[in-house]
Design brief:
The protein is an alpha+beta fold. The chain contains 7 helices and 18 strands.
Length: about 400
Amino acid sequence: MKLHGKIWSRKILKIAVLIAGAAMTMGNQKCEQKPQEQTRTLKKIVELGSIAASPIAFPGGSAFDFRFVANQQVYGVLLESSEFTLKYNPPIAVPPEQVRSGDNNFFNLTKADGVAMKAFAQAAGKDNYNLQYAKTAWCMVNLPQAKISGAVNAFELIGGGGLTLGYTPAGTHSVSGTAGFNAEWAQLDLSMVATRPLTDKVMAAANVTSKQTKTKVNMSINFGVWSVGPSAYYQTPLAQVTKNALVKSVSSLNEQLKTEEWYTRVMANHDTHLIVVGGTDVKLEVGDQLLVYNEEYYWEGEPCDSRYLGGGAQASSAVAKIEIDWVGDEISRGKVIEQNDENAVVGAKVKLFKFKDASYKPADPGVQPSNPSEPAPTTPVPANPSKPGRR
């Protein structure tokens, strides 16, 4: 009997171990199958300079403007990137001291954002933008987080028989005595750099070599068509070779700039709300919380009209915390939820405090179901809401 009891005890123990192991395996599979939460990153606002490049010399004295097509393509590459957003025009169109009361052309905004900005100002009783701006900081609104420029160091088309068309730092490769050119390979060497807008200090630099871009193209080039304009170029595999180099360079710059903290600027102060530069273009969302810092700036002469010498703000010196409650194309509005004794000036630096929580729910819109017999009560909205209490 004791022997049988021991056998049964061992069997029961073995079954229990197997069940426990199966449960752990199923649990692990569920964890593995659980979708990973995607981390949102905000796009950095950049300004694009030019891409320097030499023309490509053709037989008979004609040339192809390669600089033009390279500059056209880099705009598309930056717009398609998930790391950067471009600003074509400065958000503030003219210096505040030049603005007349009620001037609607003060900002460079999309039509929808312009309508919203005007409505926000009127609701806050601030139609005269000139009264809102501190001259020592307003010019910071127009600065990008980085300036990007570059140069095509070499662009070579390699044909049969050792013929090469294009240029390198050593000089130009020209082809003579032929009406066309059969290109078997194409390669390009490109450098790009990101600099700080005020000091021109290099933040990141990338170089994509010919070895990285060499591509088999197998195409015939008609010099006469190319000399007319760039449209023929965009329809060839060579356009993709150039784009690949630009994409590699932009990706390299982004990797290097990941250590640079994202920031934007205050564009307008409406007491209870602040308008900041950046909307859907930088991937801000309703519910995100931002911190606002008034910086100290040092100039050689007149503020915003002389050489910048330096400045900044202490990490623990935020004057306000805002929660985004409206997002436009290129601007967002944030409700002031915390504020100290100092008002945020236009041009103040704005940094991310935290993204909206997973449990975040927008404010109740206040829409009540209608009752045919008794209308739903309404709550009047004050024309000029009071400023939040200081903390």
